[in-house]
From TrEMBL:
Topology of the protein relative to the lipid bilayer: Multi-pass membrane protein
PANTHER family: MAJOR FACILITATOR SUPERFAMILY MULTIDRUG TRANSPORTER MFSC
Organism of derivation: Phocaeicola sartorii
Transmembrane regions: 12-37, 49-69, 81-103, 109-130, 142-163, 169-189, 201-219, 231-247, 267-289, 301-321, 333-352, 404-422, 429-450
One GO cellular component term: plasma membrane
Keyword Transcription: no
UniProt keyword annotations, A-Z: Cell membrane, Membrane, Transmembrane, Transmembrane helix, Transport
GO molecular function, one term: transmembrane transporter activity
Protein name: DHA2 family efflux MFS transporter permease subunit
Length: 456
């Protein structure tokens, strides 16, 4: 027995290091760019609105291609897609460093987005292969913790790099992380289990998938920013036509790119719904609060960063704990409790006094982070483990897509509410709507208790 245990440790832990390093790299790259936008706009002599495309291009490409790469992972192996993704990401990072114009940097960021989509599409599928079912929650908890740490550290790392050197170094940090992940992954990551199910990659569905999600993002963004109604209407019509064709095509496929077959599993569908609504609530709060702290409470950028930090720090502490609890407690109950704590935190933020002391903000932010951490890990475990083993890629891709859709919807709603409400009431309106989404996520999560836990 001892020999088996010792032989299992390198596969369980050291193989997971490759996944965690790649996730850290892709999350950091998404967060540090926000801090660098003013510097990039100045250096390339472009407007702030134009500079935002350095961030948007990266995010849009990920959203448009995530499910397609997940499907390729089911066909050709999660390990192969993952390693290709790291290679593309590192290569694109070198191209970013060498960029001498705004447009070459933007194109390099688009290529980076393809690499990040490969990584994100199969990372949880690989974690499912690395960890045995009885402790999968622990692996997912560590994964959630690394995401939270990277998100929390991103602004500080970006600020330190920009204070000491040029923006080029922001991309240089990807190279050692990527090369380490590539070396460890190539040596230790497991291959897909042998499956009797064989299918070909549906190129037409991949194109329809990209157009559907691309049009969805553009339509929501155009509506939120009050762009031309005619232009939005044309986009909406194209979205309905292409989206309808895409979904109808997926319903005829045995292993579709958009996993409608998995959505027929009740606990999977409910967990995807809670993921979208919870991330919508999170973004409504996280995007609106910095504006409130700066424009109403008159804190500076450094103070705002410190006041927001308790949220991810609390998530870092609770995510691994939730990963252990899900081994014994139904994920629907854990998710419901987590969203109740999260909703309570949002409500206390809504009730902030006019001139709060710093500690009065800090404990409210920590409460939100605790609730979200308690919810996220069990929910992710449920999504991945409720799918058949040969469809882990589809489940992993859907998990990432649900997160991105929730974040996109949350950001869009912030832009819309900021347009509708006056300065002093904008954050309150966002927090109130976030509270509604958090309660909805908690209710749907609790409904899952009527179904058997896939972690047992």
């Amino acid at each position: 027995m001892k020999k088996e245990k010792i032989a299992f440790i390198p596969k369980q832990y050291f193989a997971a290091v490759a996944v965690l390093l790649a996730i850290m790299m892709s999350v950091l790259d998404g967060t540090i760019m926000n801090i660098a936008l003013p510097t990039l706009a100045h250096d390339f002599d472009v407007t702030p609105a134009t500079a935002i495309w350095i961030v948007n291009a990266y995010q849009i490409v990920i959203t448009m291609t995530l499910l397609s790469f997940a499907s390729l992972g089911d066909i050709y192996g999660y390990r192969r897609i993952f390693l290709i993704g790291i290679s593309v990401f590192v290569g694109a990072s070198v191209a970013c460093i060498l960029s001498n114009s705004f447009w070459t940097l933007t194109v390099s960021r688009i290529i980076q987005g393809f690499g990040a989509a490969c990584i994100m599409s199969v990372n949880t599928a690989l974690i499912r292969l690395i960890y045995p079912p009885q402790i999968l929650g622990r692996g997912m908890g560590v994964n959630a913790m690394v995401v939270a740490v990277s998100a929390a550290a991103g602004p500080s790392i970006a600020g330190s790099i920009l204070a000491l050197g040029s923006w080029h170094w922001l991309f240089a940090i990807n190279i050692p992380l990527g090369l380490a992940a590539l070396a460890i992954g190539h040596r230790l990551l497991p291959h897909n289990p042998v499956s009797a199910v064989r299918h070909k990659f549906d190129k037409i569905s991949a194109i329809a998938n990209a157009l559907t999600f691309g049009l969805l993002i553009y339509t929501l963004d155009g509506f939120a920013h009050a762009e031309s109604r005619k232009f939005i209407a044309v986009q909406a019509i194209l979205l309905v036509i292409i989206g309808t064709y895409f979904i109808r095509r997926q319903l005829k496929e045995t292993t579709p790119i958009l996993p409608v077959d998995l959505l027929k599993i009740p606990i999977f569908a409910l967990s995807i719904g809670t993921s979208i609504t919870s991330f919508t609530a999170q973004m409504l709060a996280m995007v609106s609060l910095p504006f409130f702290m700066q424009n109403v409470l008159e804190y500076n950028a450094v103070q705002i960063g410190l006041l927001l930090t308790p949220w991810p720090l609390a998530t870092i502490l609770t995510a691994p704990l939730a990963g252990r609890l899900v081994e014994k407690v139904h994920p629907g109950l854990l998710g419901g409790i987590g969203m109740a704590v999260f909703a309570t935190g949002l409500f206390t933020l809504y009730l902030l006094p006019a001139h709060p002391a710093e500690w009065n903000i800090i404990w409210r932010m920590a409460l939100c982070g605790m609730g979200f951490g308690l919810f996220q890990t069990p929910n992710n475990v449920t999504i991945v483990s409720s799918a058949p083993a040969h469809r882990s890629g589809g489940a992993s891709g859907m998990l990432g897509t649900a997160r991105l859709l929730g974040q996109t919807l949350g950001t869009t709603l912030v832009a819309l509410l900021f347009r509708l409400f006056a300065e002093g009431h904008r954050a309150q309106a966002c927090l109130l709507l976030a509270l509604f989404f958090a309660i909805a996520a908690g209710v749907v999560s609790s409904i899952r208790m009527a179904h058997a836990s896939p972690t047992k």
